[in-house]
Specification:
Number of strands: 13
Number of domains: 1
Bound molecules: zinc ion
CATH class: Alpha Beta
Structural class: alpha/beta
Distance between the termini: 32 Å
Strand order of the largest sheet: 6-5-4-3-2-1-13
Number of helices: 8
Length: 253
């Protein structure tokens, strides 16, 4: 896609609701936790499941507890191949195979065959891609571990969803900022700082602030130390999230 122009010309969303349906971080104790991350994105033309967590049974149970019908999912976007983001996919496909799965071209052939084996459409993302109007993938980033990040253009700014942010949460936000016009309203997901030094974490936070990130929702593999540092710097604009959390655009003042 010729991102600069086409992105600027596209409309923005007035409504967006995201629900974390699989996370190792707790939030609503009626839902079960397990290592991994998955969140639904509703409001765009397509209802999207971003990642699937590690456990398909738990994913479906949690979706049911949150009143989400798997049959309502149009597209699944897989951030990267790690099992804590893709392990729940087969569980979903067994219930609802008629989705399209956006994965990276670098995923193993066997993985793609398994998905196609359910009669499910596979879209291999090789570069920045539009999932549907207002919703984009950054395309694969990172050298060792390839990962794509989801970007939603809303009337209030850009909403960025990361899986593990293996390429670096700061690098991801820099890339989003370089490609998309508008302010970054929220960055949510795993920031992969569980084993990072304080100075590395501070550097990520400084980059977020410099690039004008308004809200953060660090979860999954962000790590407790980094979560606390984000809270210290972003205060009430660091959202308390985990499995069972719902974030609507209207919540972000
Ligand atoms: Zn990972
Ligand atoms: Zn992960």
């Amino acid at each position: 896609m010729e991102h600069d122009q086409s992105v600027a010309e596209t409309p923005v969303l007035a409504n967006l609701t995201m629900k974390i349906v699989h996370d190792n971080c707790p939030f609503d104790d009626r839902l079960r936790t397990a290592w991994g991350f998955a969140a639904t994105v509703a409001g765009p033309e397509k209802t999207i499941l971003f990642d699937t967590g590690s456990d398909g049974t738990l994913l479906r149970e949690n979706m049911a507890s949150m009143g989400i019908d798997p049959g309502g999912i149009d597209s699944v976007v897989l951030s990267h191949v790690h099992a804590d983001h893709t392990g729940g996919l087969v569980g979903l496909l067994k219930a609802h195979p008629s989705v399209e799965v956006f994965l990276l071209g670098s995923f193993p052939a066997r993985f793609k065959e398994t998905v196609r084996g359910y009669g499910t459409g596979v879209v291999e993302v090789e570069s920045p891609t539009m999932i549907c109007p207002c919703v984009y993938s950054t395309g694969p980033m990172g050298r060792r571990i390839h990962e794509q990040t989801l970007v939603v253009r809303t009337a209030r700014g850009l909403v960025v969803l990361t899986g593990c942010a293996h390429p670096g949460a700061d690098k991801v936000v820099e890339q989003v900022r370089a490609v998309h016009e508008g302010d970054i309203l929220l960055v949510m997901g795993g920031f992969h700082l569980g084993w990072a030094t304080d100075s590395r974490i501070e550097r990520v936070i400084r980059t977020f602030k410099r690039l004008g990130v308004r809200y953060v929702a660090p979860t999954h593999c962000t790590g407790e130390k980094a979560q606390n540092l984000f809270l210290k710097h972003f205060k009430d604009r660091c959202l308390d999230v985990g499995v069972g959390k719902t974030i609507a655009l209207a919540d972000l003042k």
